[in-house]
Automatic annotation (TrEMBL):
Domain of life: Bacteria
Name of this protein: Outer membrane protein OmpA-like peptidoglycan-associated protein
Predominant location category: membrane
Domain OmpA-like: from-to ranges: 369-490
Keyword Membrane tagged: yes
Transmembrane segments: none
Source organism of the structure: Pseudogracilibacillus auburnensis
Pfam families found in the cross-reference section: OmpA
PROSITE patterns: OMPA_2 (PS51123), PROKAR_LIPOPROTEIN (PS51257)
Subcellular location: Cell outer membrane
Amino acid sequence: MKRTLILIFIFLMSTLLLSGCGSILKPFMGQAEKEPVETVDKEGEEEEEQEVKEEPKEAKEEFEEVEPEAEKEQEEEPIQTVKLGDYEVYIGGEVVEEDGKIIIHGESNLLPGARVVGEVLVGEEEESDFFSDTSEIVQDDGSFYMELAHHDSNQETQVSVKFHFDGQQDDNMIRHYGDRGQNLEGPYIYKHQGEVGGGKPQNIFKMAKVVTTFEPSGEKAIRHFKVANWNPTPDDMGDTRVWIEVDEINNDKEYFYLQGRSNLSEGANIFVHYGSWRQDETRVLPDGSFYLKIPYEYREDTNFVIEFNPNHWSQWNEIEERYGAEGQKLVGDLVVQDKYSDKQYIEKVVEEESQLIDIPANVELEVEGSEVTMLVPDNILFDYDKYDLKKEAQETLNEISQTLESAFNKKDLDILIIGHTDNTGSKEYNQELSKQRADEVKKHIEKQLKSKDMSITTEGYGDSKPIASNDTEEGQAKNRRVEIIINLADR
């Protein structure tokens, strides 16, 4: 019996021992069971990853096969440097004179389908001696082509291109730029009054405009549109305490040229009077600047009088509201009380100190806004294909240097000298030659100038900006030139 109890005890203990070992080994046994499963899954994942990795490889191989053709297309097609439809509008191009017509090869970043208007004007807008206009549609690449009638005379000619909403524009243009062009931005943008409706707010539009002014020549001249060179906008622009400054008064014995600045709002209409009958009017530009041109007449003890009257019929409603329909909001030392009513206006008296822009007879003079250009044919300055100044060139440049010091204020005068060639030779050679010629002219002028406040820079344009046809010797001779440009706007 005792032996039997011992055997039963040993059996129970053995059972318990085996059961405990199984519990202890179970985690390890489970891990061992899982390892083959993980190995299988990992191999499956690696196979899937291999397939995924191979797909981009195939796509890359397909791209590499197409890439040379794409590069070829890029080489054949010009790179688009401007974004069509940008609110900051660009308009440019060249104007070519031909027999009986003026041709405009235009370029822009306007949306395709935009309607642009080209105009040729001789004389004043109100009483023009000649006027011609046309309208064309901008193409898919932003370009446009125009033909206008030529007046076939030697009178000063203004050619302009405008993009505005006082006329026909399709719905897409109106949605994009605004029904009055209010989304237009940049240095090409001006406010203007519509043809019908007076100065009411709904009749004041924004437009993009470029202009070139020149005197026609016998040759087929080529002109380029220029972007306006704006000054910084006055911090107090639109303030009722009005100030007006005249920076420059010059004449060429045909016209007086006045250039000035003000804090009057853009679009304010101002007048200038010289004596009883000589006068001009203009609207203040976006930067507060203004340019006036009066027929020349020598008169002793006669001043220029610049006037701004908010009550004048030509003022826009927004100008009347800003300064008061009767000028009642105007303050400051320029305010004048009307003798016969309660109305007020602004008056600025400028003493006549006009300087004569006296240039040598063989040099052409162009005055366009704040830019005065002296055009010197290269046969006066250089031998053919050379950049060393001729001895006789020194006399011409000496006279020009004297004019620069006597006819313009000496402080902060910016002068740009540009060399041009005809199309004989390579473009690289012509560009280098034109720059060398401009540099030589600069060196000589700097030696003659007593003032050290004048800043002179040079550029060489080679044959890229002709003013006449290169198909004739006479045209090539005109294209070989040096331009001395005095920019009055930056002063």
